[in-house]
Amino acid sequence: MARIFKVSELTAAIREVVEMHFPFVWVRGQVSNLSRPGSGHIYFTLKDDQAGLQVVWFKNTQPASRRLNLDPAVSLGNGQEVICAGRIGVYPPRGTYQLIAELVQEQGPGDLFLAFEALKARLQEKGYFDPGRKKEIPFNPDRVGIVTAPTGAALQDFMRVAEDMGLGAEILVYPSLVQGDRAPADLARAISRACREGRAQVLVLLRGGGSLEDLWAFNSEEVAKAVFDSEIPVITGIGHEVDTTIADLVADMRAATPSHVPQHLWEQRNDLRVRVDEHEIRLAKTYERFLQDRKEQLDNIAKALSWLSPEKQLQRREESLNALEQTLHRQAGAFLDMHQRSVHDLEARIQSRFGPDFWRIRRQELVFWQEKLKSLSQSLVQDKAHQLNFIREKLASLDPYGPLKRGYSLVTVERTGRFLRSVNDVLADDELEITVIDGQIKSRVVPQAVRNQ
Predict the structure, then answer these.
(1) Which residues contact 92 (CB under 8 A, 6 or more apart)?
(2) Helices (H), 207-309
(3) Residues with Cβ < 8 Å from 144, sequence gap 6 or more?
(4) CA atoms of 355 and 345, how far apart (whole Å)
(5) Closest CA to 44 of 26, 65, 23, 30
(6) 77 in Cβ contact with 93 (< 8 Å)
(7) Separation of CA 406 from chain center
């Protein structure tokens, strides 16, 4: 009967076999997924083109010197080719095996790093990174196309931040693989599809963080050419801030992370609300100033029209006539008083200087001249009265409504707005307004009625 092992028993047996057969080994590979926690230990994966090995390098086995040129623990980075020496151990809680390194020796850049630099140089020579060809990313777009894995965390991070920004936009997701051997061709197809449809105003390439190998699909010439040929502006949000891919260099704009992309596309919604409130306040103030200006203009026009109206003109002339009449009365009275006083003075002087006969003769002459003076005064007053009546009659003749009281009427041609004085002033079918003393009458000119005498 076959023995049934407990997990811990089987793991312990495997650990014993592994540690017994590999007490100390030398392994060569490329560093990836490098991690430096606060404990000082270093964790990374040692990889070649077919397999990967987990490595832990404890702090107490690292060199004591911290000079960059002597300490590989300081200069160690993703993509480097290294040789590690140590023992193979099994970690029971996870059931995994790992290399517990005691020595790490740098061997120079890894194959992926060299491939990255070679492709970067080749595309640089072709002008893929030329700033002059980069398109401007539209701000506050209504339709955004996203090329990414639909179930990935990068899309969720993007949507979470985008919810608090802008005024709402249509998000078009173009699904694609973002890791693995088939990812470059899949990414290129998704970008080409978005360009063919032409619905998106801006195209976003999204991918969460990972090792150099995880992000390698975005370091392919196939994806770089698709981004370069895109007619739609492209912005990338790939990996973390320290990660830079070929797609980032070719794109029109690079965001540090997927969650940073919305900040380059939309404003914060609260900022937009504040700006709307500010514009509303300025609009209200501008509208109030506009109404006040128009009210002042209307008041000025009303005053001008009131001053020029026929009623006001007649009122001013009547006031002027009353003033002239009062002046005439005052001057006539003063004239009579002055001559009367003069007569009295002359009479007294004559009486004092001449005798009774002289006075009798002179009295007769005085009576004559007195009568004559009275007659002249009356004539003068009558002349002034005639002049006053003439002015009143002339003023009355200027009243445009005076003739209406005598049975006449005023005819206005509505087409020209002028009074009708001749048959030449009207045309057939012209609208006429006939004003009589108690209202207006509308009429139309018939063709047979328009003829000269």
Answers:
(1) 8, 11, 12, 15
(2) 221-229, 246-250, 261-265, 269-308
(3) 169, 170, 171, 172, 200, 201, 202, 204, 265
(4) 17
(5) 30
(6) no
(7) 67
Cα 324 from chain centre: 67
pTM of the model: 0.46
> What is the helix (H) or strand (E) element at residue 73, kind and residue range?
helix 72-75
Amino acid occupying residue 137: I
Nearest Cα neighbor of 170 from 191, 194, 146 is 146
Those residues of the chain that have pLDDT short of 50 are: 65-70
pLDDT digits (tens, 9 = 90+) for 274-330: 777 788 888 888 888 998 888 888 888 877 777 777 777 777 788 888 888 888 888
Q: How many other CB atoms are there within 10 angstroms of residue 131's CB atom?
A: 6
Output the six-digit token pair for 408.
């006449």
Q: Are the CB atoms for 176 and 210 separated by under 8 Å? A: no
CB 144 within 8 A of CB 202: yes
Q: What is the SS3 string spanning 10-54?
A: HHHHHHHHHHHHCCCEEEEEEEEEEECCCCCCEEEEEECCCCEEE
SS3 428: coil
Amino acid at 183: A
Distance between CA 78 and CA 213 in Å, rounded? 10
Structure tokens belonging to residue 45: 């994966």
- CA-based end-to-end distance of the chain: 143
Q: Beta partners for 147?
A: 174, 205
- Sheet with 170-175, edge to edge strand ranges: 170-175, 143-148, 202-207, 234-238, 253-255
Q: What percent of the chain has pLDDT over 90?
A: 23
Summarised one tens digit per residue, pLDDT across range 371-380 is 888 888 888 8
E strand map for 378-429: 410-413, 418-419
Number of residues assigned to the chain? 453
